[in-house]
Amino acid sequence: MQADEGTTSTPGGAPPEPSAHRDRRGFDVLFLLQQFSTEAERYADQVRRRYGLAHKDVHALNEVMQANREGRPVRAGDIARRLVLSGSATTTVIKRLVSAGHIVRSIDPRDRREVSLRATEHAYRAGREMFAPMTEEVLAVLDDCGDDEIEVLRRRLPELTDAVRRAGRRAAEGGPTAPAAAAAAAGAAAGTVPPAPGPSAATG
What we know:
Blueprint: E1 7-8, E2 17-18, H1 27-50, H2 55-70, H3 76-83, H4 87-99, E3 103-107, E4 115-119, H5 121-142, H6 147-173, H7 178-190
Antiparallel strand pairs: 1-2, 3-4
C-alpha cells in the first residue's frame, strides 16, 4: 500500500478529496522513495527465503549488525522494542539466529548481569552474498552521480530515515496525524464531528 497519492478516499464512493499534502514541494519524491523501499524489501524477501530466514529474522539480524557497527550493546529487549515483538516471539527469533550461526550471546562487559547479542562472521559473509547483486546494481547507478549529488544523498537520507522513525513512533502511540487532529478540533469548535479518514485511495 502506498501513501496518499494526492487524493483521499471518501465514504460511499464519493469523488476523492484532494490531499492536504499534494502541493507541497517534494511530494512526488515521497513516491520515488516508496518505490525504492518497496523494491528493496521485495529483493530482501526473495533472498532471505533462499537462506532459510524468516522475515523477522532478517530485521532482527539487521538490528544486531547495526548496533555492532555503532559499538553499542544490543539485547533481546532492544530487538523486541524495535520490531514490536512479544518477549516469546523475540526469544524464538533469537534462538533461530543462534542455531543458524548468525548471532552469538555474550556477557555485556558494561553490565555483567546483561546478555548482549553479536553478529558472527558467518552472518556478515551470508549478508554479503545475499545482497551482492543489489549492491552491484545500486553502486553502478551511484557511480554516475557527481560528488555534489552523492553529498546530498549522504546528508539527506539519514534525515529522511529519522523522519520515518518519528512517524513510526507517532503511529505506535495511536494518535491522529496533524491534519486529522486539526480537522477534529475544527469540527468540535463548530459542533460537528468530521468523518474518520478512510484508507488510501491507491494501493501498491
